[in-house]
Amino acid sequence: VKSVEASIPEPQREAWKKHQVEGFTDKDGFEKEVVRHVETTLARSLFNCDEGAAYSATSLAFRDRLITEWNRTQQRQTTADTKRVYYLSLEFLMGRALDNAMLNVGLKDVARGGIDDLGFRIEDIIEQEHDAALGNGGLGRLAACFLDSLASLNYPAWGYGLRYRYGIFKQEIINGYQVEVPDYWLDFNPWEFPRHDVTVDIQFYGNVRKSQDENGKTVAHWEGGEIVTAVAYDMPIPGYATPSTNNLRLWSSKASSGEFDFQKFNNGDYESSVADQQRAETISAVLYPNDNLDRGKELRLKQQYFWVAASLYDIVRRFKKSKRAWREFPDQVAIQLNDTHPTLAVVELQRILVDIEGLEWDEAWNIVTSTFGYTNHTVLPEALEKWPVGLMQHLLPRHLQIIYDINLFFLQTVEKKFPNDREMLTSVSIIEESQPKMVRMAYLAIVGSHKVNGVAELHSDLIQTTIFKDFVKIFGADKFTNVTNGITPRRWLHQANPRLSELIASKTGGHEFLKDLTQLNKLELSIDDDAFRKEWAEIKYANKVRLTKYIKKTLDVTVNPAALFDVQVKRIHEYKRQQLNIFGVIHRYLALKAMSPEERKKQLPRVSIFGGKAAPGYWMAKQIIHLINNVGAVVNKDPDIGDLLKVIYLEDYNVSKAEMIVPASDLSEHISTAGTEASGTSNMKFVLNGGLIIGTCDGANIEITREIGQENIFLFGTLSEDVEDLRHAHTYGSHTVDSDLNKVFDTIQSGTFGEPNDFGAMVAAVRDHGDFYLVSDDFQSYIDTQKMVDTEYRNQDEWVRKCIRSVARMGFFSSDRCINEYAEGIWNVEPLVVK
Ligand code: 7GP
User: Residue 546: phi, psi to the nearest 5?
Assistant: First the structure.
């Protein structure tokens, strides 16, 4: 590997070195780069440079800098020849790149001055950027936070994903209903580098022929079918306050040049030859818009194999350059499966090693299982992936055979350990003996990995005691572990809340806390400092004013920034229980209506803010959105209510909107039915920005409580160990709904919020159909806890103290801590120190 450099003759090396691009370091250099890009790359001038062009040129200037460091980082890693991590994720919810790049390389102030000289405001320039929204929610955003931490901590790491032409749809609210609009985001994307020379041909369909080699060994040949080409697009990922710049490689599909039917084309059958091309391009065309739900579409399986096969080809190609023996593969490569979506990678690596490289099955399988780790992100049964055997056979005939072999050998070891236990065999078999037969991807991922982790303590306990309990018996408890999720403080504090970040820096001895979040604990020393608390409160207020203006501009509703801002923003899902929140809002509205004007004057004004997308095919989630909007339409113009209650639905919730909303919250809601939310990560973001939480004992709420103290969080509701009994009682006992909740239902059904029939199913789900999510069980304690919130919010001094204490104790929830745990406990990789 050292020969890489030595292979270039000295004079040549000198010439290259002399002209190495160094990138700007000061305002003048920055301006020069921006003007150069406006005038040459964009072919514009001072006279027709609008904010869009200024954004593009600024981004290109920063991109140039990043790519120089990217090149050096790759060179450094190749020379050091140490183990790399590959994070395979079908979703990367990156959001905007420019602000992040400016802050991570430490040149935002330089850029601010330069942009100003050129006649623009940096805030307006940042706003020009379209979010890279290649994800649905928590799982995709976690992947993005991980990339930031991996680079910031100098780990040699690559992300691999798909370059969707359309990310998550844009949400519009029209007459109170969600309407989906396609998100075409690639018009001009300065952050990606097409690598038209880095391509991989991917095979689908066809059939398997077996032959004997000269030693009498059976060899499988996967033949025929169709070929689609994967083209690499790279996005540089800058670390914070380090030159390390990692790579996110996204694959785009196109018709393979060998496949494009020139015969047809020349014969004038233009349409069908174009149709072939379009079919190939369809693979990476669109992100499936489901969160915590598996729909089992054939195209989705095609996406998965396409992406996994291209990524593995790339990883293997890189490994082979080092000329090491295959058994060293796991010493050089760690691959993390972000949920089961990339599980075919297990099968593909086994296929490469056995069919193409000629290794023996057992040796290959050892390499495979030492290489992979699997992270589970949900226990919801409707989200656990299964693929029909027939579909797998058709699309990936050789892979199905390998899956059957993996299963056979696995079941043989189970049989040895648990002789004559047929129930055990059926329960853990990778193939579900149903009609039709299905491949259980989570089981395949467990069998193919050396570590399996959940994403918060409760969740990791639950997977070991429920959905995967038999695998714990088979493999032992050591194979299963927990890595509680985290978030990057760079984006979610420094970038989203610059004033708070500066205030914290002034009290903790500089910006060190952005690299070591535990340093936040120094804040507690300043808690009795009146000026500090005043400044803290002012920052929160200013963030609320900013959101107030946004609400006025987009919805034409005036809200009082002094009111308590109560926020629930996340994907709309019955298990996340936005319905509980809106029922609570209706209860509050009825209570206010029943009061005398004198009594009303004593009440605390509140703004209930909602945001989030519903999967286009999730009817009930869309009903919930409709109800929230209809309640807002009535409440917001009720003269009896005025400022006391406003109900706001923020359209098209995404990463960049979160950066504005999160710092503006006083209270945020994380109120899933206990045992259903694997972790949650926005709970961490809200607390880190000085907001308190109302929440259930679920996911990471439990660990947040442990860290910040139970006096600083509003917990309520059923515990996860009681959920099953309650559900059973709803179905088999008599299920009654208390009178307060019934009043809410009666109001809905009287037509107060639109057509009485519109929300019949939502009410019936609770009242008549078993109330699976325990809304009725938790309603009263939710209302009582909200009353406590009102009381405590009135004591502003104590409230602010709670917020400061909470922030001071949030150090644990940095994604840096999380990545270090993966690196040590699962990947066995070390950072590459940059001199
Ligand atoms: C989510 C979980 O719902 C959320 O609780 C967790 O914080 C996040 O992953 C990151 O770990 N799961 C998904 O988004 C999801 O779709 C099924 O999981 C594949």
Answer: -60, -45
Q: Is 691 in the pocket of ligand 1 (CB under 6 A)?
A: no
Judge whether residue 2 has pLDDT over 60: no
Interatomic CA distance for residues 41 and 190, integer angstroms: 11
Average pLDDT score over residue span 661-666: 99
Q: Does ligand 1 lie within 6 Å of residue 544's CB atom?
A: no
- Residue identified by tokens 């936005």 is 578
CA of 336 to the centre of ligand 1 (A): 16
Q: Which residues contact 277 (CB under 8 A, 6 or more apart)?
A: 254, 255, 260
Helix (H) or strand (E) holding 545: helix 530-555
Round to the nearest angstrom and report the end-to-end CA distance of the chain. 20
Euclidean distance between CA atoms 505 and 509, whole angstroms: 6
Residues 395, 298 contacting (CB under 8 angstroms): yes
Residue located via tokens 């002209």: 19
Q: Write down the pLDDT at residue 3.
A: 56
CB 576 near ligand 1, within 6 Å: no
For the question of residue 637 being annotated catalytic, the response is: no
What is the tens place of the pLDDT at every residue in 736-781?
999 999 999 999 999 999 998 889 999 999 999 999 999 999 999 9
Catalytic, 576? Answer yes
The rounded distance, in Å, linking the Cα atoms of 238 and 152 is: 7
3 state DSSP class of 571: coil
ipTM of this predicted structure: 0.99
Ligand 1 mean position, distance from CA 73 (Å): 31
Grade residue 260 by pLDDT with cuts at 50, 70 and 90.
low
pLDDT at 1: 43
Given a cut of 50, whether residue 785 has pLDDT beyond it is yes
Give 74-124 pLDDT, tens digit per residue.
999 999 999 999 999 999 999 999 999 999 999 999 999 999 999 999 999
Half-sphere exposure of 39 (CA within 13 A, CB side): 8
Lowest mean pLDDT among 377-381, 468-472, 536-540, 831-835: 831-835
CB 660 within 8 A of CB 547: yes
Ligand 1 centroid to 201 CA: how many Å?
32
Q: Which atom of ligand 1 is nearest to 681's Cα?
A: 7
CB atoms within 10 A of CB 560: 16
Among candidates 430, 339, 427, 345, which has minimal Cα distance to 383?
Answer: 339
> pLDDT per residue over 263-299, tens digit each?
666 777 777 778 889 999 999 999 999 999 999 999 9
Is the pLDDT at 336 greater than 80? The verdict is yes
CA distance 765 to 578: 14
pTM of the model: 0.98
| Nearest residue to 340 (alpha-carbon basis) of 314, 366, 301 | 301
Strands of 113-169, DSSP E: 132-134, 157-162
DSSP 529: -
Q: Largest Cα–Cα distance of the chain, in whole Å?
A: 96
Instruction: Using the structure block, give the residue that is written with the tokens 């020393």.
Output: 525
pLDDT of amino acid 268: 73
Give the Å distance between the CA of 473 and the centre of ligand 1.
Answer: 26
Query: Active-site residue among 165, 341, 576, 802?
Result: 576
pLDDT-derived band of residue 262, with 50, 70 and 90 as boundaries? low
User: 606 burial class (0-12, 13-18, 19+ CB within 10 angstroms)?
Assistant: buried
Q: How far apart are the CA of 195 and the centre of ligand 1, in A? A: 31
Residue 378 in contact with ligand 1 by CB distance below 6 A: yes
Q: Say which of 340, 681, 696, 785 is annotated catalytic.
A: 681
Q: Is the separation of the CB atoms in 621 and 171 below 8 Å?
A: no
Question: What angle in degrees, to the nearest 10, is found between the helix axes of 815-822 and 138-152?
Answer: 80
Mean of the per-residue pLDDT values of the chain: 96
Residue closest to 628 by CA, chosen among 555, 558, 695, 538? 555
> In ligand 1, which atom is closest to the CA atom of 383?
17
Q: Are 247 and 158 in contact (CB under 8 A)?
A: yes
